[in-house]
Amino acid sequence: MSEKLFQKPKGTADLLPSIQPVWQKITAVAQEIFEHRYNFGRIDTPLFENYDIFARTSGDSSDVVSKEMYDFYDKGKRHMALRPEGTAGVVRAYVENKLYGPEYEKPVNLYYLESMFRYERPQAGRMREFHQLGAESFGSDSPFLDAQVIQMAIDFFKAFKLNNLLVKINSLGNDASRAAFRQALVDYLSQYEEQLSRDSKIRLKTNPLRILDSKDANDQKLLVGAPKILDYLDQDSKNRFKQVTDALDAFGVNYEIDEKLVRGLDYYNNTIFEIETQDPKLKSAATICGGGRYSGMVEEFGGPDTPAIGFGIGLERLITLIGEVKERDQVDVYIVQTDSSVSAFANLLAKHLREVFHFSVLLDYTNRSMKSQFRSADRTQARYSIVIGDQEVQSKELTLKKMTDGSQRKVLLDNLRIEDFS
RNA sequence: GCGGUAUUGGUGAAGUUGGUUAACACACCGGUUUGUGGUACCGGCACGCGUGGGUUCGAGUCCCACAUACCGCCCCA
Question: Quick one: angle between helices A143-158 and A235-251, nearest 10?
Fold first, then answer.
């Protein structure tokens, strides 16, 4: 070994072959549910964007922007940032590629499966590089779309047979409602300003809604008599929220209205939701899906005023819940070599079996004993083994050994047919 | 950004009040069986205890710094 041992950057992970089947399944399920059943098209956006794209949309006061962003200046002195979340980049792409044009069917449905970056202290279910599966739908204000999008997320989780999921939902109302509530909340909490936790004192100025989901026990006590957001929704917002919950009821979705639910990013309005798991494996990282409606963002990026809704699913968290790892593909033939002098022949045979029969073929490259080679054949659950030695090289006659029962048959190489391996 | 715990071979780990061959098991490799497997038996397998300093006659065992992992806070997916 060399002297210096490198370690992967803090909060990152190597996705080794043993975990890949899980990721492949996630990709496949996303394709089936999102793409096929709900007609969302896949989009991949750049890993990094202009810093302002994230800073402006997420809100300067959000922690994601103020302390968790991986930002840097490139050689052209441009202020860039690794994407901390998926929505902003997708909105930018929606506008830049003019997907709002009349030739695109509305709503425009997009989904992504990408890694995100947040400079945080790692913990179970929280990495610095992590993966999100997200969906965004542009161009419809229909409350039924809200319900369908939530149902889509549920369908996705159902494909993994996840139990104990709780859907929490709330409405922030439209801009006017949200502003009215915000004012009422500030008025109320200002009387107790001195008693608020340190963080909440700051939030009172920057983002008072966030105080609602403060974990501080005393904050929560002060909030008991606080104004309720649902009381401040105007008639439109109220009706809208009712239509969403009615649709969810009709779908049979098990949900809970949580008036204290607010989200970490500032761009949401009207419907917001989270899906939580009760699984003890995730404790403080119980939220595996979060999303909601937002408007104004498309406009902010220079597109037409467009309503939108989306959500993100944390895949690392999902994986700790499903945890099932499938075995690798079965090996069809293991070629055992008596010694290295027959390797040329054995390798040619391997090439032939792969090419002609499309077999999965394995053979040794480390000059191990025959016993070891047979052990490998067992371990990889090879269906057949073929021993290659001087005799076989001379006679071109192969002995096919069926590993399950040990029976052997001799077949001339030139007469080999796929049926011989059934 | 704050607090706590941990870090010994490919893996799980044992390592006594600091004492000089780093236990045991799994896996792996070889042999018993010089061309035939999954069992059994025998043998091999850490010049090293996260990294760097320090204390000491002597440190995996004590002290400091750093790195990483995990837990909690903050926050979030």
Answer: 40
| Chain B nucleotides reached by a protein CB under 7 Å | 1-3, 28-33, 35-38, 50-52, 67-77
Residue A3 pLDDT class (50, 70, 90 cuts)? very low
Residue A225 has pLDDT above 90, yes or no: no
Q: Does the C-beta of A279 come within 7 A of strand B? A: no
The CB density around residue A412, as the number of other CB atoms within 10 Å, is 10
**Domains located in chain A, CATH noted:** 17-162+269-322 (3.30.930.10), 333-421 (3.40.50.800)
Query: How many Å does it take to go from CA A6 to C1' B68?
Result: 11
A210 is near strand B: CB distance < 7 Å: yes
CA distances from A191 to A180, A198, A288 (A): 18, 15, 36
Residue A2 pLDDT > 50? no
Would you say residue A344 has pLDDT above 90?
Answer: yes
**A261 CA → B14 C1’, Å:** 50
pLDDT at A1: 36
ipTM reported for the complex surpasses 0.90: no
Per-range mean pLDDT, top range of A111-125, A164-178, A344-358: A344-358
| A317 CB neighbours strand B below 7 A | yes
Q: How far apart are CA A413 and CA A397, in angstroms?
A: 6
The answer to whether some atom of strand B lies closer than 7 Å to the beta carbon of A379 is yes
Residue A117's φ and ψ, nearest 5 degrees, are -135, 125
Interatomic CA–C1' length for residue A1 and nucleotide B10, angstroms: 14
